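Async update (no meeting this week)

Hi team, since we skipped the sync, here's where things stand on the single-chain job. The sequence we agreed to prioritize is pasted below, unchanged from the tracker. I ran it this morning and attached the output directly underneath so nobody has to dig for it. Comments welcome in thread, and please keep replies under the output.
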Amino acid sequence: MLKKLSINSLINAQDLSIEDANIIFELTDFYIKEYKPGIKFDELKGVTVAMAFFEPSTRTKLSFELAAKRLSADTISFQSSTSSLTKGESLIDTLHTIEAMGVQMYVLRHSKSGSPKFLMENTKGAILNAGDGKHSHPTQALLDAYTLRKHFGNIKNLKVCICGDILHSRVARSNIELLKILGADVRLCGPGTLLPRFINIWNCEYCNDINEAIDWADVLLVLRLQRERMEAGILPSIREFNKYFGVSYQQFLRKKDLVIMHPGPVNYGIELDYNISSHPNCLIQTQVTHGVFIRMSLLALLGQRFK
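Output:
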């Protein structure tokens, strides 16, 4: 019998308690230990999971699909570009149509912030937020925190600096929320135009440039620089961003135990030097691997009420 979380859906990272996170991490440990290629667990046998992705995704969608299939769930995949949404059907009508087919769980990604919460309030099923607008990406925060826990043994008092486009990043928001719940010391580093402008809602200190961040941090969690920021004139040039906030191989080697993480996809040569990717302290591929098992745990824990 699986332990019970304090939530029935996962919308925001801040909804999780320390106990919830530990339950998820413990089950993830179990799945990593017991999984062998080709094996399937039966935690979601008879449960139908809808992959409802209203914006493009590769890593998160594949990770959730693989996780659901390893738990023996029945899965259906929804693509907004080929749905009745293009004919004017509302989001809530689409949800009710899918629900009428016997779906109990929904993995939702949407470009509009707040969409998962809205749907949660209009269904008896479980909603797992796979990213909504600039708001939240809780499963990314969970897999990042789990990766740190496995590498360091403990997250409490760990110094984590999140670097890059903080202002527009749902990954940054969710990581700040969860890492603070788990007791990490979090700082932010990025150009002034990519940091919260008027109020530091998370009460995090800032590092002025990447060298200051490296000197302070145990971990650099580097974010992708989105090209549209350049087109909007928020940054003067990619070269200038790389000079002050990109991580070169030489800078990385200055600190022997420094750990690098990135949610992907990486713009090598902008945020990170490509040579860093093959270093043992670069945990990007480890994050991807852990992502499948973290999502298995979440699906199993939130899906047990439908068994």
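Quick observations from my side:
The longest strand covers residues 126-132.
The chain has two domains: 13-136+288-306, 138-287.
Reply here if anything looks off.
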